[in-house]
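STRUCTURE:
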C-alpha cells in the first residue's frame, strides 16, 4: 500500500527502514516528546519487533518517504476499533535538521488522516500530545483537530509529571 500527498509517500515499513526506526526510538530528544517510555533497543530487538508486525489488524504503521530525503520518519494508526470506527494517530520525524520544521510532518499526518477517513472508513481519529510538545500541537491544529481535554499529570518525563492533551477530529470536520 502506498499513500501519496504532494512530495510525500507513506509506505509499508521495509527491512531497510529498521536502522532509521531504531535510531529514532533510541534518540533521547524524540523519546522526550512522545508518550510512554522506551528502553534502548538493539538491532536484534528491532528485527524481532519488525517480524511481529505481520499479524496486526489493529494498527497500521507506515514510513514517511520524501522524494528529496528518502525515509524521514513514521506515522501510525493504533488501537483501531473496527466496530466504533475510531483510531489513535501517532507520528515521529527523524532528528535531522534537513527535515525538521519543513512541513513534512503536517503533510504526512494529513495524508494519514485522509486515508483513515476515506479508505478505512474511520469516524474519529484522536491523538494524545504531551503538553510541552508544541510542534505536534501545531500540526493537529492546522489539520483541524479539536482539543478535547487534558489527562492530568499522566506522563513522567525528566523527573516530572506532565499533562497530556487529547485531540480529535471527526470525518465530517476533516472533509469540510
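SEQUENCE:
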Amino acid at each position: 500500500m502506498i499513500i501519496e500527498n504532494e512530495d510525500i509517500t507513506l509506505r509499508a515499513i521495509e527491512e531497510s527502514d529498521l536502522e532509521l526506526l531504531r535510531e529514532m526510538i533510541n534518540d533521547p530528544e524524540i523519546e522526550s516528546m512522545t508518550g510512554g517510555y522506551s528502553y534502548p533497543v538493539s538491532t536484534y530487538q528491532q528485527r524481532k519487533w519488525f517480524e511481529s508486525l505481520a499479524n496486526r489488524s489493529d494498527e497500521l504503521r507506515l514510513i514517511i518517504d520524501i522524494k528529496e530525503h528518502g525515509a524521514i520518519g513514521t506515522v501510525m494508526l493504533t488501537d483501531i476499533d473496527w466496530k466504533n470506527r475510531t483510531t489513535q494517530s501517532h507520528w515521529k520525524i527523524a532528528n535531522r535538521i534537513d527535515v525538521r520544521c519543513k512541513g513534512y510532518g503536517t503533510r504526512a499526518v494529513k495524508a494519514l488522516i485522509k486515508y483513515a477517513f476515506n479508505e478505512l472508513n474511520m469516524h474519529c481519529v484522536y491523538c494524545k500530545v504531551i503538553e510541552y510538545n508544541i510542534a505536534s500541537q501545531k500540526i493537529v491544529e492546522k489539520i483541524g483537530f479539536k482539543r478535547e481535554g487534558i489527562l492530568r499529570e499522566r506522563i513522567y518525563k525528566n523527573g516530572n509529571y506532565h499533562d497530556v492533551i487529547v485531540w480529535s477530529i471527526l470525518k465530517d470536520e476533516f472533509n469540510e
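REMARK: The chain has a mean pLDDT of 86.
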